[in-house]
Design a protein that fits this description.
The protein contains eleven helices and two strands. It has a single domain, classed as Rhopdopsin 7-helix transmembrane proteins. The N and C termini lie far apart (53 Å). α1 runs parallel beside α10, α3 packs antiparallel against α5 and α8 runs antiparallel to α9. The protein is mainly alpha-helical and 315 residues long. 75% of the residues lie in helices and 2% in strands. A two-stranded antiparallel sheet has the order 1-2. InterPro entries: GPCR_Rhodpsn (IPR000276), GPCR_Rhodpsn_7TM (IPR017452), Olfact_rcpt (IPR000725), OR51/52/56-like (IPR050402). Belongs to the G-protein coupled receptor 1 family. Its main location: membrane.
C-alpha cells in the first residue's frame, strides 16, 4: 500500500515504525512488549509498596509515587499507536486521535518535569532543614504542589492542538515517529508554522528549560550543606538520598535535549536516528526509574524483598 500520497486536507496521519525497514516492524513487537511490561511491573510495584507500607508514607515517597504514576500514564499514551504499528501493522491514525495523543504526550512530559522539580525541593528541605521537614512538606502542601504541576502543564500545552488544527496540510501525511509529536506534525503543514514554532520553543524554554535550571541551582545549597557535614558517613548518606533523583533527572533531560536538538538541527541525520532518540526519550525513563529507586532506596528494596519472601514461603 502506498502511503506517500499528498492530501488537500488530511483526515489521518501515517505513523512510522522503523524508517526504511517496514518489514522489520514485527520483530520490534517483542522488545517493545517487554519494555511496556517492565514499565507496568516496575511502576506498579512502586505504587503498591508505598501504599501498603506505612513507613513509606513520607513526602519523598509521595513524590516518587506521583513520578511513577506519571511514567505509567506517559507509557500508556504511546502504547495504542505502538501496538497498532508493530503488532497489528496498521500505521494509520485519525487526525483528531493524533492531536489527542499529542496533547497527552507533551502534557505528561511537562508534568514529569514539574515532578522532578518538586522532588528537588523535597531533597532541598530534607537536607537544609531536616528538623522542619515534616512540618513544611505536609499532605496539604504536597497536594497543592501536585495540582500546581498538573495545572501548569495543561494550561501551557492546551493551545497546541488548536495551533495544529488551524494549519492546512497539503503535503505528505507520513509522520516520522510511531506516535504524534507537535514538531513532527508541524513540519507537514503547507503554510507558515512560525507561530507554532515560537510557541513550542517558549514551552520548552519556560517549562523544561526553567525546571532544569531550578533543579541545577537547588543542588548548589544541597551540596554546600552536605560537604559542610563533619561526619563522612552522614555525607555519604545524604548524597545517597539525592543520587536516585539525579539519575531520574538525567534520564529525563538528556534524551529530551537530544530529541529537541535532532528535530531542530539534525535534518541531515538519518530518520532512524530521530526515531531512536524519540523512542529512548519516551520509553527508557519509565522503565529505568523504578529500577533505580528500588536499587538505591533501602526501604523500598526491603519491602519488595519481603513481598517475594512471603510469596515464596506460601508456595
Amino acid at each position: 500500500m502506498d502511503f506517500n500520497i499528498s492530501y488537500t486536507n488530511h483526515q489521518s496521519f501515517i505513523l512510522t515504525g522503523i524508517p526504511g525497514m517496514p518489514e522489520k516492524n514485527p520483530w520490534m513487537a517483542f522488545p517493545l512488549g517487554l519494555l511496556y511490561t517492565l514499565t507496568l511491573l516496575g511502576n506498579g510495584t512502586i505504587l503498591a509498596v508505598v501504599k501498603v507500607d506505612q513507613s513509606l508514607h513520607e513526602p519523598m515517597y509521595y513524590f516518587l509515587s506521583i513520578l511513577a504514576l506519571t511514567d505509567l500514564s506517559l507509557s500508556m499514551s504511546t502504547l495504542p499507536t505502538m501496538l497498532s504499528i508493530f503488532w497489528f501493522n496498521t500505521p494509520e491514525i485519525a487526525f483528531d486521535a493524533c492531536i489527542t495523543q499529542m496533547f497527552f504526550i507533551h502534557g505528561l512530559g511537562g508534568v514529569e518535569s514539574g515532578v522532578l522539580v518538586s522532588m528537588a525541593f523535597d531533597r532541598f528541605v530534607a537536607i537544609r532543614d531536616p528538623l522542619r521537614y515534616a512540618s513544611i512538606l505536609t499532605h496539604g502542601v504536597i497536594g497543592k504542589i501536585g495540582i500546581a504541576v498538573i495545572t501548569r502543564s495543561v494550561c501551557l500545552v492546551f493551545p497546541l492542538p488548536f495551533l495544529i488544527k488551524r494549519l492546512p496540510f497539503c503535503r505528505s501525511n507520513v509522520l516520522s515517529h510511531s506516535y504524534c509529536l507537535h514538531q513532527d506534525a508541524m513540519r507537514l503543514a503547507c503554510a507558515s508554522t512560525q507561530v507554532n514554532s515560537l510557541y513550542g520553543l517558549c514551552i520548552v524554554v519556560f517549562t523544561l528549560g526553567l525546571d532544569a535550571l531550578i533543579i541545577l541551582f537547588s543542588y548548589t545549597p544541597i551540596l554546600k550543606t552536605v560537604l559542610g557535614t563533619a561526619s563522612r558517613a552522614e555525607r555519604l548518606k545524604a548524597l545517597n538520598t539525592c543520587l536516585s533523583h539525579i539519575c531520574a533527572v538525567l534520564l529525563f533531560y538528556v534524551p529530551l535535549i537530544g530529541v529537541t536538538m535532532v528535530h531542530r538541527f539534525g535534518k541531515h541525520l538519518s530518520p532512524a536516528v530521530r526515531t531512536l532518540m524519540a523512542n529512548i526519550y519516551l520509553l527508557l525513563p519509565p522503565v529505568l526509574n523504578p529500577i533505580i529507586y528500588s536499587m538505591k532506596t533501602k526501604q523500598i528494596q526491603r519491602r519488595i524483598i519481603q513481598v517475594f519472601q512471603r510469596r515464596k514461603n506460601r508456595v
